[in-house]
Amino acid sequence: MKRIALVTGASQGVGLGIVRVFLKHGWRVFGVDQKPADASLAAHEDYAHQVGDLREAADCEQAIAGCLASFGRLDALVNNAGLGNARPFLETTDDDYERYYAINVRPVLRLCRFALPALKESKGSIVNIASAFGLVGVGVSAAYVPTKSAVIGITTMLATEFGRDGVRINAVAPGLIWSPGTDERIRNNKWWRRMMVEGTPLGRVGQPEEIGEACAFLASENAGFIHGVVLPVDGGWSMAKFLPEPAHF
């Protein structure tokens, strides 16, 4: 029997990469996004898609219900949908914090709450997408960093509470991952390129599928004794300090 994964933010970027990797590994996937399914997946026999706004509690509940109606079970929930590119602290307003919390935190809590009965039955898993920015001190991202730190806290809290029910709960903390917006920012912002690319020991930007592989591993039986961890997938960025200048290599 094929296992079933629900992936949020499934129509583009990291979410689309996650979907493709799960399908490659033989899962059936139920995607949720504000946008329709990517054209490459529209006719895939193991993919179903639901358009929804996860800022709304009803849409979060309907996402889980839609997955169960389509595939009959749920083995993995991947909470990927999120909002990035925040501003410096003194330029960040209360409305900014509410906007980031509404998509980066509140849907994670709701989706986990609605999914846990099905995951307890299947002895499944949750993989939350946090961020390397939630692991280290980073400025100029005032609304983003606290929400991703919250995702890490949610992960460890749920792992503590639901491990005895057979539900494994972990998080992935991506570094800089390729997207059209990322590519443009690297080309046009020297400071960002130096911090995020030259400041990464592997010296490159990650690919969405590399996040997908980490998620698929954590959701698989191969990770059966991995629980409550936050796995950085960032080319070493979050642990790197005092990298030598390129001329020294």
Write a brief structural summary.
By secondary structure, the protein is of the alpha/beta class. The protein has helices at 13-24, 57-71, 94-104, 106-122, 144-162, 180-188, 190-198, 208-219; strands spanning 4-8, 28-33, 47-51, 76-79, 125-129, 168-174, 230-233. It has a single domain (4-177, 208-241), classed as 3-Layer(aba) Sandwich (Rossmann fold), CATH 3.40.50.
Question: What does the model show?
Answer:
Helix 1 packs across helix 8, helix 3 runs parallel beside helix 5 and helix 6 (180-188) packs across helix 7. Helix 1 links the parallel strand 1 (4-8) and strand 2 (28-33). The termini are far apart. The protein has 249 residues and is α/β, with parallel strands linked by helices. It has a single domain, classed as NAD(P)-binding Rossmann-like Domain (Rossmann fold, 3-Layer(aba) Sandwich). The protein has eight helices and seven strands; from the N terminus they run E-H-E-E-H-E-H-H-E-H-E-H-H-H-E. It has a seven-stranded parallel beta sheet with strand order 3-2-1-4-5-6-7, sandwiched between helices. The longest helix has 19 residues, at 144-162. The protein has helices at residues 13-24, 57-71, 94-104, 106-122, 144-162, 180-188, 190-198, 208-219; strands at 4-8, 28-33, 47-51, 76-79, 125-129, 168-174, 230-233. InterPro entries: NAD(P)-bd_dom_sf, SDR, SDR_fam. This is SDR family NAD(P)-dependent oxidoreductase.
